[in-house]
Amino acid sequence: MNQIMFIFFLCLFGGHSGAGIFTAQYYGYKDDKGIQYTFRYKLWIGLIITATAIAVMHFFGSDLIGLYLNESSSGGDLDATLRYGLGYMRIIFFSMPLVFISLTYSSTLRECGETVVPMRAGIIAVFVNLAFNYLLIYGKLGFPKMGVYGAAVATDISRLVECVIIVVWLHTHAHVHTYIRGVYRSMLIPFSVVKKFFVTGAPLLINETLWATGIFLLNQAYSMRGLNAVAGQNIANTINNVFNIAFIAMGDAVAIIVGQLLGAGKMKEAKDTDNKIIASSVMIGCVIMVAMILTAPLFPRLYNTNAEAKHLATLFLIVYGIVTPKEAFLHASYFTIRSGGKTVVTFLFDSVFMCLVSVPLAFVLSRYTDLHVIAIFAVVHAADLIKCVIGYILVKKNVWMKNIVA
Prior knowledge:
The protein contains 14 helices and no strands. It is mostly helical and 406 residues long. The radius of gyration is 21 Å and the shape is globular. The N and C termini lie far apart (43 Å).
């Protein structure tokens, strides 16, 4: 279920990203009207993507979850897993509109230089989620014991809290973020502006959709080794996401800071700033690598699962740690290329590589060899070194240095 929601989130991210490039540059250019147009565009595209995702998940949920349910010698109740997955999905539907509204507000705030409020809202949401997970999964302090379904309800509550915090804060600080004044007086956007956003943003939407689908297919390939492989990877993914917050934030910094400098026409400063952020991102990745490898055996012990799943989670985490500097560089490179509106290039750099190299490689190794799931996982990540070389060349050639709003 997490993998399906991951695709939804990345589709939203891709739909918002095209307009987001303009938001950062409009902010650097001090154009409130332009920011209002990007805000409205994000709301419309978010509504369309959310409605489509809910419809697909409602009608094809069993088929999607079933892709991950494969028999193995390690056992596992496939029917129960499917049943719980479908129940979880139906509850999580309530949080999906909140996700696109929160993302519209938080991404606009970040692109306009306000990063603290979305961060605080996200942190509060995490703690709310943790608290209600404990209360609703296990039935503590008088709350009903809901098990897996309690985790879904906790997610809905945390998404609501995050959404309310961000929306209320922005509208009560309209004296600072003046673009929000009157943003809902009309939801209309001039066709010429929509066309400009769509032409730039469509490759990003396609890119994120294909990339998320690629990740879905990669994880499906790993799931061919059984439910313990699925459980181990889910544990590792959760912990890996926490560790990666630092270099992901550096990628966001590229999109925001470099985008604003490009919009202001400060090309030389944009290039120098970008080089410093990429270098810092890779160094942070090296620190995270050491921390992840050293702590890999500890975190899986927190989960209530069998010994084999915990062992696989530890091995997944070690590989994740080793490849973190690579991931940090690729993330920063992607946002560098994107900051100047080179969305077709990012499409080729990101999802085309995923579809032509990573997914076929995992498919062949998982179905036509007896390689251990960790070995397959490591080989797929090693192939990304080719993409690192391509990213280095694209950044150095300055193909991204372009003002698209002046």
